[in-house]
Write a structure and sequence with these properties.
CATH superfamily of the largest domain: Crystallins
Strand content: over 45%
Number of domains: 2
InterPro entries: Beta/Gamma-Crystallin, Beta/gamma_crystallin, G_crystallin-like
Shape: elongated
Helix content: under 10%
Radius of gyration: 17 Å
Distance between the termini: 6 Å
Domain Beta/gamma crystallin 'Greek key': 2-42, 43-81, 87-126
Order of helices and strands: EEEEEEEEEEEEEEHE
Strand order of the largest sheet: 2-1-3-6
Oligomer: single chain
Protein name: EDSP protein
CATH architecture of the largest domain: Sandwich
Structural class: mainly beta
CATH class of the largest domain: Mainly Beta
Keywords: Repeat
GO biological process, one term: visual perception
Length: 175
């Protein structure tokens, strides 16, 4: 069973809650903005800084996180239900899926190739992807979901053609 256990303090200390389904507003359960560590079993979870899956998304794949990057800032949790087994995204050099394209199926650092800071649109065929502004998973990031078609990064993602690294979320182990 997929689950996330969240703790109010680092190193899995203090009050905790376990969830097996989406939580649109942790404040309603008296656990909003107090998560400092967590454990994930199964599929990845996305923690959002605002209720109703708004604000900055943070992905947590299966494993233990004795501290989280933004403690005391999560207000919603969403389980990733999508098939993550065979990811694929197509990147385009220009807006509206024009210009040179590149099909990506695994974690890729674009800093060493033609497409570094040149991607302006994308189509996600399969999987859930994390897109990063800087090489090495650095800078501002966003999520790209299956079936998503982003026609122009500048107004839609505020990336302004600055995509340098991307990776698919890893599926959790089957239970």
């Amino acid at each position: 069973m997929n689950r996330i256990t969240v703790y109010e303090r680092a190193d899995f200390e203090g009050l905790s809650r376990e969830f097996t389904c989406d939580v649109p507003d942790l404040h309603e359960l008296d656990f909003g903005n107090c998560i400092a560590s967590l454990k994930v079993v199964g599929q990845p979870w996305i923690a959002y800084t605002e209720p109703k899956y708004e604000g900055e998304p943070h992905a947590f794949e299966e494993g233990e996180y004795p501290s989280v990057g933004r403690p005391n800032s999560f207000s919603a949790l969403r389980l990733v239900h999508d098939d993550l087994g065979d990811p694929q995204i197509t990147l385009y050099e220009r807006p509206n899926f024009q210009g040179a394209c590149k099909v990506v199926t695994e974690e890729t650092n674009l800093a060493y190739g033609y497409f570094n800071d040149r991607v302006a649109s994308h189509v996600v065929q399969r999987g859930v992807w994390l897109l990063y502004q800087h090489p090495g998973r650095g800078g501002w990031h966003c999520l790209a979901w299956p079936g998503e078609r982003r026609a122009d990064y500048k107004p839609e993602l505020n990336f302004q053609v600055r995509l340098s690294h991307l990776r698919p979320l890893r599926p959790g182990r089957p239970l």
